[in-house]
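Notebook entry, cofactor series.
This is the third protein in the set we're modelling with a bound small molecule. For this one the ligand is flavin-adenine dinucleotide. I'm keeping the input format identical across the series so the outputs can be compared line by line later. Sequence and SMILES below, as received.
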Amino acid sequence: MPFAMLMDTAIDYPEIREQVTRLCAGFPGSYWRDLEARSAYPEAFVKALTESGYLAALIPEAFGGAGLPLRAAAVILETIHARGCSAAACHAQMYTMGTLLRHGSPSQKKRYLPAIAEGELRLQAFGVTEPDSGSDTLSLRTRAVRDGDHFVVTGQKIWTSRARYSDLLLLLVRTTPLEDCKKRSDGLTVLLVDLREAEGQGLEIRPIETMINHQTTELFIDGLKVPAENVIGEVGRGFRYILDGMNAERILLAGEALGDGRYFIERAVDYAKERKVFGRPIGQNQGIQFPLARARVHLDAADLVARQAAASFDAGEPCGPAANSAKLLTSEAAWAAAEACFQTFGGFAFAKDYDIERKWRECRLFQTAPVSTNMVLAYIAQTVLGLPRAY
Ligand SMILES: Cc1cc2nc3c(=O)[nH]c(=O)nc-3n(C[C@H](O)[C@H](O)[C@H](O)COP(=O)(O)OP(=O)(O)OC[C@H]3O[C@@H](n4cnc5c(N)ncnc54)[C@H](O)[C@@H]3O)c2cc1C
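Returned structure with ligand:
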């Protein structure tokens, strides 16, 4: 295949790209700047995405969704980010819904999925991370004890994003104490918590101020009662269900990182052609050109790996190494593009009206969440290279 064709990475799902681009045109930089100044949630943007059906892209048609492959969902998120918008306020609905879809009971699916597809219910929050366990998920200490037809939950979560704007929360809890489990991954259970009933009844949600407008929170849980019928799948097998969703999450967020990278390159190239200093466009200087050209090459290469990961996922093949590689490569390529763009804009990169500093701050997150670069490297070292576990 000629090199040009191999590198022609922007051609699949052209209708989706075009329609999402049109939708995003209604949400310019001024919309996002205003939200951030007020630490506000992008209600209008999420409503538009929901009404257009994009947030239900992965919900099967039988439950009212579009039943599209994961690759199509990644293209939706990539386009949103490439157009200067952010899907962070609602992207989790795409992959948390997968846990319910794959492991929920028929009655749970019937009750929740059509309502999520319709936009009547939001499932945008998932609580896994805890203050003391961090990346070591299996050490989590939030405990759920069965009491008749309920579980009673006590513990704490951190970085539970969107909890104040979601109706439902997927909560990973320990139902069997670690010392009674054969394996550390046993004894964890996924509960579907109805936040509308839970808040004030054993659940307190406190926002965390961050360097980006992300609506992330801490959850303080003390005696929260969750009906036993809200267990997803089997009690004690929750970690496997969460793991199942992680590859999808990594591939989808790789799409967002790619979109950010494409945004930075497009903005920087336009600016480098227009901005004249010393009597010529700054883009004529190789000091400006080369970082942008290098970032573009790295983005295209990362894009190919992300497509490979999505293709494996959609074919039902094992895709852990590809999904993790895609996440690592896209987050680093996007960050290189962010840096090159920031430098291209000179002092104007710092001016809020240009949106570069906002996107630059937002883009940094991909190297930390949903999984940090070190943890991806540890995974590749162990599973691909067969090196001994580092922890
Ligand atoms: C804005 C934001 C939103 C988030 N949203 C959610 C959410 O909705 N739901 C949720 O459950 N979580 C969420 N998270 C949590 C996120 O997934 C974690 O921050 C992330 O997994 C890392 O955990 P930690 O911050 O405790 O870092 P730590 O685990 O304390 O790690 C700190 C550093 O040490 C490194 N490190 C740790 N152990 C090792 C090792 N063995 N080898 C090499 N390096 C190591 C890590 O890679 C990292 O760089 C969010 C985080 C942020 C910042």
